[in-house]
Design brief:
The chain is an alpha+beta fold. The protein has 5 helices and 5 strands. The chain is 33% helix and 19% strand. The strands form 2 sheets. Strands 3-4-5 form a 3-stranded mixed beta sheet. This is CBS domain-containing protein.
Length: 148
């Protein structure tokens, strides 16, 4: 039987809300040694912010630390269900060059699965290796959409 994402996802997620600002997200990332923060309304996942989002849409766009999360959030992120198989998750991550993938149940954040979860736990090593290889490949000079 194929292993499910629910068996290896992180469930102790650090989250923020639209009431937070860019500075507060940067502090969360520093203090928790993370580069990805799901943005929630209650338990409902409404978007994500990565360290790259903070740089590109925040500071590089000359926004101050008091800038609202809404200015840097990604709302068109890919998500998966907790019942998704690990190999399906690895394929989705590879196909879309995603390093971290929110896991949702009925629209609510249930956890996060990362490429490291796939590789470190030696689950479907070939798929995880393929996914990591695909995600880490350099672009061919084209612009890639920013999925997280």
């Amino acid at each position: 039987m194929a292993r499910k994402v629910s068996e290896l996802m992180s469930t102790d997620c650090v989250t923020a809300t639209l009431l937070d600002n860019v500075y507060e997200l940067a502090v969360l990332m520093r203090d928790h040694d993370i580069g990805f923060v799901p943005i929630v309304d209650g338990k409902k996942l409404i978007g994500v912010v990565t360290d790259r989002d903070l740089v590109v849409r925040g500071y590089a766009a000359k926004h101050s630390g008091s800038t609202a999360v809404a200015e840097v959030i990604t709302t068109d992120m890919k998500t998966i269900d907790a019942d998704t198989t690990v190999d399906e998750a690895a394929k989705l991550m590879a196909d879309n060059q995603i390093r971290r993938l929110p896991v949702v149940k009925n629209g609510e954040l249930a956890g996060i699965v990362s490429i490291g979860d796939l590789a470190v736990r030696e689950i479907f090593v070939n798929e995880a290796g393929d996914a990591l290889s695909s995600i880490s490949q350099q672009g061919s000079g084209e612009s890639h959409a920013a999925f997280h």
